[in-house]
Amino acid sequence: MFTGIVETMGKVDSIVIMDSTTSGGGGFSITVGDAAIVLSDVNLGDSIAVNGVCLTVTEFNAERTCFKVGISPETLRKTSLGELQVGEKVNLERAMSASTRFGGHFVQGHVDTTVLIHSITPDPPNSLILTFHVPAGLETDYLRYIIPKGYVTLDGTSLTVVSVDNANRTFCVMLIAYTQEHVVLPLKKVGMKVNLEVDQIGKYVENVAVAMLNGQGGGSSVIAEMIKKMVDERVTEIMPPQ
């Protein structure tokens, strides 16, 4: 579990497509440097989020400045990690500890999909508005979990949604000056992919609500009746009786 509060930006030192070493696991591996801040208490097998992707540390050097992670085929399909280049900066965050201040929101490090940067607009005097396009045609429509003033995780950064345009399948977030200096998003350009993890609470609420409406949560449930009433009223507003 993570918070979405980026601890530092590391740098991709090397990428091996087919790493035959023990720490590489015979697959795709990445070595990340400039990572001393997140390696002070690291052990093999620990989790570090790299651009929002929860990955297992398989090797680190004696100086604790760089570490290696293996990337599975599923992770390459779901995230933008396969498009990283040597020298590129990445957001890093260690898994939460019992004493961690919870400054962001519940982040699993399980990326749902990638979104494209649609536009980057200065918001004077010192902020940026970033607009992202959510792809259609996926097995799950992740746009439905994104709401104004709700949370999203973008490349591992916990951010508040400013607005959502369902018709154009876009949403916006704002980066203050401090955030611009400490995360990788401002380094990216329009059209580039960004890892998206939607707020998990929205998924859980949806599952509970659907189960109740389908009678799987107790047909006489007061909550189920309230949800059904709210849904019926909303449907009536959108499509009034003829």
UniProtKB/TrEMBL annotation:
Which Pfam families does the entry mention?
Lum_binding
Q: Which UniProt keyword terms apply here?
A: Repeat, Riboflavin biosynthesis, Transferase
The UniProt entry's GO biological process terms, in alphabetical order, are:
riboflavin biosynthetic process
Q: What is its EC number?
A: 2.5.1.9
**GO MF term list:** riboflavin synthase activity
User: Part of which pathway?
Assistant: Cofactor biosynthesis; riboflavin biosynthesis; riboflavin from 2-hydroxy-3-oxobutyl phosphate and 5-amino-6-(D-ribitylamino)uracil: step 2/2
Residue stretches in coiled coil: none
Instruction: Report the top EC class in one word.
Output: transferase
- Source domain of life: Eukaryota
- What name is this protein filed under? Riboflavin synthase
Q: What is the lineage of its organism?
A: Eukaryota, Fungi, Fungi incertae sedis, Chytridiomycota, Chytridiomycota incertae sedis
Q: What does this protein do?
A: Catalyzes the dismutation of two molecules of 6,7-dimethyl-8-ribityllumazine, resulting in the formation of riboflavin and 5-amino-6-(D-ribitylamino)uracil.
Q: Which CDD domains match?
A: Riboflavin_synthase_like
SUPFAM superfamilies the record matches? Riboflavin synthase domain-like
Domain Lumazine-binding positions: 1-105, 106-209
List the source organism: Powellomyces hirtus
Give me the Lumazine-binding repeat coordinates as residue ranges: 1-105, 106-209
